[in-house]
Request: fold
Amino acid sequence: MSDLLSQLKQHSVVVADTGDFAAMRKYQPRDATTNPSLLLKAATMPEYAAVVDRAVKDAKAEAPTAAAALGLTMDKLAVAFGIEILGIVPNRVSTEVDARLSFDTEASVAKARQLISFYEAAGIPRERILIKLASTWEGIQAAARLKQDGIRCNLTLLFSFAQAVACAEAGVQLISPFVGRILDWHKKATGVAGYAPAEDPGVLSVTRIYNYYKKFGYTTEVMGASFRNKEEILELAGSDLLTIAPSLLEELQSNTGTVVPKLTPEHAAASPLEKIHLDEAAFRWMHNEDQMATEKLSEGIRLFAADSLKLEKFLLPKLAA
Reply:
C-alpha cells in the first residue's frame, strides 16, 4: 500500500507551504507558496544568507535613496526566494504583496506589477507567478485589475463565503481558504477541544466553497491552506490544490492507508447551494455578519504586517553595512 502523500497527489495538486528549499526538494510539490512569516523564517536561516546578501546588494545598487533601499530589498528578497523556488518546483510560486497595502487597491496593483517586472527581468514568465493579496474588497478589486494585465493572483486570508463569492465573480485565479485558522477560532469560541474531521468548521467552509464554484462553473481554483492536522487534509482530498507545511507533508509521507476523494464535481452538482451576486455593499455586510471571518482576516493582516516589520528590522543592519 502506498503512502498517503502519494495517493493524495492523485486527487489534488500538492503545494509546499514553506520557504525552505530542502523541504521542497524532499516532497516534490508541483507549486509552492510563501508569505511574510515564511520569508522571515527563511531569511534568518544561515543556509540562505547568500540569497539575502544578493538581494541587499542589488537593492543598494538600484535604490535612489537609503529609505527606498529598504522597500526595494524586501521586494528583491521575495523575488529572489521565488526564483530559487522555481528552480525546484515545476509550475508556480506565490509571492505576497505587503499586507500593509491590504486596503489600497492602487498601491497593491502597483506593487504587484513591480514584483512581476522583477521576475520577468530575471527571465521568469508571469504565467509561473501568482501574486498573493489579502481577500479584502480592495485586494479582490486589485486582482480583477491585474487579471487584465495577464497577472494571476492568489487571494489569501480567506475565511468567509462572501470573500469566496466575490473572488469568483472577479475572475480570480486562485483562493486560499485558511482551514486551520477557522478551526482555531471555533475551538476557542465554543470551548470544544476538537471536531471530527468531517465536522471540522474549516473543512466544511472549504467544502461549501468548492461545491459552489463547481456547481456554477467558476474557474477559480480552490487551494485549502493552513492545516492543523492530516485529517483536515484528507477530508479535502479532491480540492483543486492543497498547500501543506513540511511537518504535515512528512506525516502524510510516513503513513499508509487509502485516500478517497471527498470533493468531486458530482457531489458539487448535487449540492443545494443557490447562486448569489455581491456588490461592494452586499459583500461588506455579508462578511461583517461572519464574526469568525471578520476577526481572523483582521488578525491575519496584522500578523503578516508584523512579520514584515521584523524582516525589515533584520535587513536594516545589512543595508547599513
